[in-house]
Design a protein that fits this description.
The structure holds 2 protein chains of 2 kinds. Chain A is an all-beta fold. In chain A, 0% of the residues lie in helices and 50% in strands. In chain A, the strands form 2 sheets. In chain A, strands 2, 4, 5, 6, 9, 10 and 11 form a 7-stranded mixed β-sheet that branches. In chain A, strands 1-3-8-7 form a 4-stranded antiparallel β-sheet, with no helix packed on it. The model of chain A has no long low-confidence stretch (mean pLDDT 93). Chain B is mostly beta strands. Helices cover 0% and strands 58% of the residues of chain B. Chain B contains no helices and 12 strands. In chain B, strands 2, 5, 6, 10, 11 and 12 form a 6-stranded mixed β-sheet that branches. A 4-stranded antiparallel β-sheet of chain B has the order 3-9-8-7, with no helix packed on it. The radius of gyration of chain B is 13 Å and the shape is globular. The mean pLDDT of chain B is 93. Classes of the chains: A mainly beta, B mainly beta. The A-B interface holds A 3-4, 31, 33, 35, 40-45, 48, 50, 55-56, 58-59, 91, 93, 98-100, 102-108 and B 4, 32, 36, 41-46, 49, 51, 90, 92, 94, 98-106.
Chain lengths: 114, 113
């Protein structure tokens, strides 16, 4: 596609429910990143994929968070048993070859847990 | 460990005036440094990056940044602000072999007509 696509753009969920956030990277990009941006804060790194494997998942805040990537393409970030502190904008980025190559960001998914 | 500090969460400048957005970093190894811009309702876009070549880096839209190791700084400048520069700007740091970008908290730039 022309750019990184994320869906849904907005998601409101009740506390305790599970949510899935989707990222479609730019075709051919091998590297994929997930970040979280809470109100008034910088972007927090969550996880990095190279191909379908995740060499760095050190930023996942708890075992309620998981992510997978299939076919070196689409990635899904899953949050189980959502809590109010999970409310944030979740951003996905992809690049052709790691950080020195430019990372392209999607517009994000705004998650609100009520 | 690495971190970024952006001084000033909000900066206002008059149209035509100098833009200066400050970024200081902390890194135990030689850093890679980045500036990203986020326009309203859009994703983050790379403005420029420093990856150990020339210390003065030129980016898109007339922006540039200078890596100063002695000051651990990577401030973003533009000689003459334009209304279209109004956006949020993020400084970020990483280093060779580390795919994790560590971001600052951002600076919202407002241009006064």
């Amino acid at each position: 596609g022309a750019g990184v696509s994320q869906s849904p753009s907005n998601k409101v969920t009740e506390k305790g429910k599970d949510v899935e956030l989707r990222c479609d990277p730019i075709s051919g990009h091998t590297a994929l990143y997930w970040y979280r941006q809470r109100l008034g804060q910088g972007l927090e790194f969550l996880i990095y994929f190279q191909g379908n494997s995740a060499p760095d998942k050190s930023g996942l805040p708890s075992d309620r968070f998981s992510a997978e990537r299939t076919g070196e393409s689409v990635s899904t970030l899953t949050i189980q048993r959502t809590q109010q502190e999970d409310s944030a904008v979740y951003l996905c980025a992809s690049s052709s070859g790691g950080l020195v190559a430019e990372a392209f960001f999607g517009q994000g998914t705004r998650l609100t847990v009520v | 460990a690495q971190s970024v500090t952006q001084l000033g969460s909000h900066v206002s400048v008059s149209e035509g005036a100098l833009v200066l957005l400050r970024c200081n970093y902390s890194s135990s190894v030689p850093p890679y440094l980045f500036w990203y811009v986020q326009y309203p309702n859009q994703g983050l876009q790379l403005l420029l990056k420093y990856t150990s070549a020339a210390t003065l880096v030129k980016g898109i839209n007339g922006f540039e940044a200078e890596f100063k190791k002695s000051e651990t700084s990577f401030h973003l400048t533009k000689p003459s602000a334009h209304m279209s520069d109004a956006a949020e700007y993020f400084c970020a740091v990483s280093h060779f072999g580390n795919e994790k970008l560590t971001f600052g908290t951002g600076t919202r730039l407002t241009i006064i007509p």
